[in-house]
Amino acid sequence: MKFICNQSELNEALNNVSRAVPQKSPITALTGIKLSLNNNTLELTGYDLELGIQTKINVQSEDTGEFILEAKLFCEIVRKMPFEQVSVEVDDNFTATIKGNKAEYKILAMSADEYPTIPDYDSGDSFTIGQALLKNMINQTIFAVAVADNKPILTGELFDIADGVFNLVAIDGYKLAVRTEKIDNEDRYHFVVKSKALSEVAKLLKDDDSNVVIHVAKKHITFEINGYMVLSRLLEGEFHNYKGSIPKNHTTEIIINTKELIESFERCMLLINDKNKAPVRCVFNNGQVKISCSTAMGKLSDEFDVDLAGNMVEIGLNCRYLLDTIKATESDKVRLLLNGGLSPMKIVPIEGDAYTFLVLPVRLKAE
Q1: What is the pTM of this model?
Q2: In what order do the strands lie in the sheet with 288-295?
């Protein structure tokens, strides 16, 4: 089996596909990339039994066959090839010869017989959404996905689609993010996708007007993006009732400049680390917010003007949680809605309902 192809095209395909290859696996074949050659088409597959990434590139060949090459080594060899064309040939003893100009490698290949089959998807149950829109929705919510797996369902994001409204939801018990958009689809979908898969999807999505096709099967979801197929196993279980967690009322409304808030909290971060943890105290009153933080490393006090309507409120916040949330708004100004210092801080746009974020407060000690 032999093929010749463009080095940069092969390198790009390998870089993307290899992100689904596990570093270690009890199935040795999965630590490699499967290459399936069918005349002038080469299909590349990375798969870890949970996440699969697959693509095809054009090559020069008259052969057919399948084999596996160790992912990390093959990627590095192709990346460092000094010539714009690369040839790969695998003999009957599964010795792979990889050439670029006068550079030549010989490495061991593996039989593709042991490589698990990626599940098929039901192409009849699918919908489309703009690539730029989905990318933005993922980037604005993925920060709120749970890292710990004591509740596995929360390590993914909920796709809640009904009556032409798409809610993408992430929650970790301390933060909640809901990104809302109207889409041209009246079907009902309710499933949870692993954050690892969504992170890889976001890397492949483009900031243009093209669409991504999403196929939903019973246990898997598949994204078709720019010649790539990203497949992920869906998470099973009951997702948190996010709508019931969002406060309906508030007694204080603040319009705040996000740049000033981020810069103030980043100053607080200079005094906070794993050994020196403390909440940030925020007092909203008389058109100002007074921010203070005290740890064993030192103290900070800061203040700036805000537009405030309603009651004075004092609230303690986790510095990192609020920073991550405010940065995700991608807005110059936001509205903070509060109902006292012991209820979650609700963060929404100045106008519209494109996003809703919640940050749980931290109980403050008396000064």
Answers
A1: 0.93
A2: 298-305, 288-295, 280-285, 313-317
